[in-house]
Amino acid sequence: MAFDPTATHPTYDAFAPSWRLMRDCMAGEDEIKAKGVSYLPMKSGTRAIADVQLRQAAYDGYKQRAEFPELVAPTVRGAVGTILDQPPNVVLPPALEPLRERSTRDGLSLEALHRRICTELMVTGRYGVLPGISAGGEPYLAGYVAEAITNWDTDAEQRPDWLMLNESRPVLDRSTGKWEALDQYRECFVLDGRYGARVWVRTSAGWTATEVVEASTRKRRPLDELPFVFIDTNDLTPDPDDVPLYGLGKLAVRVYRLDADYTFALHMTSEPTPWANGFADPAEAVKNGQAPTTLGSSKLWLLPEGAQAGYLEFSGPGLAAQEKAIQNSLDRAVIFGANLLADTQRTAESGEAIKLRLGNQTSTLKTIALTSAEGLERALRNLAKWMGEDPEGVVVTPNTDFFDHTLSPQEITAVVAGWQAGAYSKQTMFDRFKKGELVPAERTFEEEQELISTEGAGLGNPDLTGGNVGGQ
After folding, report:
1. Which one of 73, 338, 372, 453 is least enclosed by Cβ atoms within 10 Å?
2. Greater model confidence, 87 or 330
């Protein structure tokens, strides 16, 4: 049997539906509606319509009236913003310093690459980084989303030693100006203690592979391990982790379906239908203009003796239940981080109360902050080995404190009052101000004291005219 680069790992197949749902939810309403019945099944009454065009028109109207709630994308952006509010501290050896400004071939800085990693972990719970060195000897990092890491295997010690990466993409034919699909996969493996890779491309004759290229360090020593780094929500192992916001994505789809039924019911009940009886042959009466067909103050209705007229109107008691079901689902979305959509009562909370309320959320964010930094660090260390540098010279330290410690004016006054009363030392007061972000984190107590002393000497003793006795 011929080798098939498109074959996928069983775990990949299991996770692919959840990744697809999250991608579509991130893309928003247009993408969700473009998928049609995949997310909004056709109503049974609509399916019963025999005429294909009428059936499709009825479904399109049903779908168009529905609104997909934008829950996932704002939550992801807010979570990533919280994680990276304070960027990680990155220490690099001199040979890797250029990566700070340009770490990938498409021009991402190291900070932007880290942001992409965190975003992907929030969306799919998975990302991959493959270090490389260009033909000109420049180091770089290549990133791969979850869907592009299609197949993998491990050795007897559970270390990854074989990998298939989907690099398919549109390419421009400059002779015609048209974009064409390129089917390409990169196979990476360790064979006999040597890391190598080759590229598979689909042609009219089938799949063809390039020659195997083996990587070696600047000291001409072969790499003995696969440098690719799997970055998951909880760890750096090849097997994917659960998608952090998958529950939120499913809730968004649920609300979309409920809203479709709700707006359909509103559409059907919003306009009462007039009726009139008393005509022997209603169809003939309409044809001859005897039966009224329009409404309005300028339209005179002349009905036969004994005829009646009225409205067919549905009060819609089920609408309240549908509205409540939608609100309940939106309230459940709060659990997954969509706090902006909840009708919460805003009251003053202490720092400890906030920590308790947000404990579960921040634990997820902390895990992703730690894992993303650990994965980036490992990828950079693998690249450092390749470059002949000391891998221990690479350190990526993330921020894991997501709470606002800024002191209010009242708290500042209280801290100073406590020091003046002798409850604690000036050093303790300084440490509290430092934690409360009144003093830069890198400044020492001695440096602050020197600044205070210098400022006092410069100001001198003010005179009554507002000038300074000490002069300039």
Report:
1. 453
2. 87
